[in-house]
Amino acid sequence: MKLSARNILRGTVVAVTRGATTAHVRLELPGGAIVTASITNEAVDELGLAAGQAASAVIKSSDVMIAVD
Amino acid sequence: MKLSARNILRGTVVAVTRGATTAHVRLELPGGAIVTASITNEAVDELGLAAGQAASAVIKSSDVMIAVD
Amino acid sequence: MKLSARNILRGTVVAVTRGATTAHVRLELPGGAIVTASITNEAVDELGLAAGQAASAVIKSSDVMIAVD
Amino acid sequence: MKLSARNILRGTVVAVTRGATTAHVRLELPGGAIVTASITNEAVDELGLAAGQAASAVIKSSDVMIAVD
Amino acid sequence: MKLSARNILRGTVVAVTRGATTAHVRLELPGGAIVTASITNEAVDELGLAAGQAASAVIKSSDVMIAVD
Amino acid sequence: MKLSARNILRGTVVAVTRGATTAHVRLELPGGAIVTASITNEAVDELGLAAGQAASAVIKSSDVMIAVD
User: Fold this and answer.
1) Is the ipTM of this complex over 0.90?
2) Residues contacting residue E45 through CB under 8 Å, at least 6 positions apart
């Protein structure tokens, strides 16, 4: 599958926290930055997400803002 | 200013492409990954964005999906 | 690649309209509904999108609202 | 009320799952596809959403990605 | 039509700027704040948006971040 | 920090409701309108959000739809 999303950042899952319906998944990128994703518990189950696993953060470019100091 | 957004990824602007109303800004992260943001031309002007500049990509965690191979 | 996104709707591309930086892609679903996506021109090129092609609309569940009459 | 959102997909609610603050609503489209929406519990109450009810999924075109196999 | 979106802010259109495919619509709220929406040119035409018109900004709560100084 | 987001609406926090992972924060704008944000519990803690506090709703213009009656 090829995606139109411009941002597919490879990393490693470092934490999965489940809520009642929504889970938070933390991914560490090669440069050390941490990316947090809020996804459904259902998706966590279906993808079998767990710490230590290789995974990518997928982000549509229209969802990225820019900040400068 | 402190933001609720969980993802603030520091990097360097490598390209700014303006359209009629919408611009694409490409940021290189320390690990070498490229992040693309679609923002307004107006924001590009206001932030004075140009290649070589330090900037951050700001992404709400509910806008991050996870993919596994 | 497996995605956390809960909505992957298969259909057929019926139109691609390019703007200066942003393109609109129209997809017809099996039930006849039309889905419009605003994506980058770059993604249109990379995926080689054109009318008649099979493709899917991918939508994160946190981006779906519900309306009732 | 008329909306700028390009995607208003009519269907039938097939499931409503409440979490602590966020609910998942599943809608079946005429072609048989299922659309999942993550919305607030508050919205579920206000709209009186329940299985069997006619409802629409409303999606802004900038939140739709395209995938090809 | 009733919407699950928690944020429906009534105001007055003060400017409409069309791009090649994407338009920017500026709305003034009763308290004087300005809200900018990036929507398709097609939606601008369909809703007949023009300065002076009453309109609402509709925003899903999962798309709202919070900032503090 | 300066942000590309076109919408930074100043207001006062009127309610914070925590869920298992996701919190709802309600902000009152000067004109009396209420804005609801769904953010992570983690962000609520980090920003120390509580009723009575000054805060802003930050919204990317591509996440704003327009409705007319």
Assistant:
1) yes
2) none
